[in-house]
Design a protein that fits this description.
By secondary structure, the chain is an alpha+beta fold. Helices cover 29% and strands 31% of the residues. It has 2 domains: 106 residues, D-amino Acid Aminotransferase, Chain A, domain 1 (2-Layer Sandwich), CATH 3.30.470; 156 residues, D-amino Acid Aminotransferase, subunit A, domain 2 (D-amino Acid Aminotransferase, Chain A, domain 2, Alpha-Beta Barrel), CATH 3.20.10.10. It has 7 helices and 16 strands. Strands 7, 8, 9, 10, 11, 12, 13, 14, 15 and 16 form a 10-stranded mixed sheet that branches. The protein has a 6-stranded antiparallel sheet with strand order 2-1-6-5-3-4. β8 and β9 form a beta hairpin. α2 packs across α3 and α6 packs across α7.
Length: 275
């Protein structure tokens, strides 16, 4: 098993950093997670672009995106053609005395039971907001606490709520269908970390009967459906929130349409890449 550190392929267990590195006390770093499907990365360039955008927001210098892409591809080519994820870590030096460390680390990708997609999963709400929401920084304490509480309550995900509004999941984006209509909503990109999967759902639902509207979602709004999106989940239906049924407690038609359209996009993406 290999890792890549600043473009150098090394044994995975040798990819280490000193405990004296300032990133541990400043969270001055950004990261991305990329899905690799049988040796093929999904939307690699977009993830590297988002890594750059996050780094720009907090002033972390990165190598050129094309160089980062080459490093990622070289690692994937050195690994077996399996399915896994790659986490890109960019560790900045807050004192600006040393270059940014960029590591590509292969990791097992989390998978979810088929029953969750057929019957829906449960989620809870958790008070808080990601620090600098548009930046995927190392400051993920609130996300961690939301996940811990969700696990304690037997739920799949903790959804962050702030100022009495839905924001985002601890590791996902949130979409809802308002009760009494076919309005599909997601919180505005300016309030959340807009994931690659979220962006794809916005795209594939554009020509559907229920295109997505980016709009603030009050916590007390009556909802017919909820689903989450992320690199590992794709589109995950949520049928229970805080122990209460969402709508009729079943996976709704808009959620099913989003699931179908995303999975079609996912398959067609690799078909196009292979040509």
């Amino acid at each position: 098993m290999y890792a890549s550190v600043n473009g150098n392929l090394i044994p995975f267990n040798d990819a280490q950093v000193s405990l004296a590195h300032p990133v541990f006390t400043t969270s001055f770093g950004v990261y991305e997670s990329i899905q690799v499907d049988r040796g093929r990365p999904f939307r690699l360039d977009d993830h590297i672009g988002r890594l750059q955008a996050s780094a720009d927001l907090i002033g972390i210098p990165l190598p050129a995106q094309e160089k980062l892409r080459r490093w990622g591809v070289a690692l994937i080519q050195a690994l077996p053609p399996d399915s896994y994820s790659i986490q890109i870590l960019a560790l900045g030096d807050s004192a600006l005395k040393q270059d940014t460390i960029v590591a590509f680390l292969p990791k097992s990708i989390r998978t979810y039971a088929k029953a969750l997609y057929a019957q829906g999963a449960s989620a809870i709400t958790y008070p808080g907001e990601r620090a600098i929401p548009q930046c995927k920084s190392f400051n993920t304490l609130i996300n961690h606490l939301a996940r811990v509480e969700a696990h304690r309550q037997g739920a799949l995900e903790g959804v962050l709520v702030h100022n009495n509004e839905f924001h985002e999941g601890a590791r996902s984006n949130v979409f809802v269908v308002a009760a009494g209509g076919n309005t599909l909503l997601t919180p505005p990109a300016g309030k959340v970390l807009s994931g690659i999967t979220r962006d794809i759902v916005l795209e594939v639902m554009e020509e559907s009967p229920t295109p997505v509207q980016e709009r603030s979602i009050p916590l007390n709004a009556p909802l017919a459906e909820i689903f989450l999106t992320s690199t590992s989940m794709h589109v995950m239906p949520i049928t229970t929130l805080n122990g209460q049924k969402v709508g009729n407690g079943q996976v709704g038609p808009v959620t099913k349409e989003a699931m179908k359209r995303f999975e079609r996009y996912y398959v067609e993406y690799f078909e196009q890449v292979g040509k």
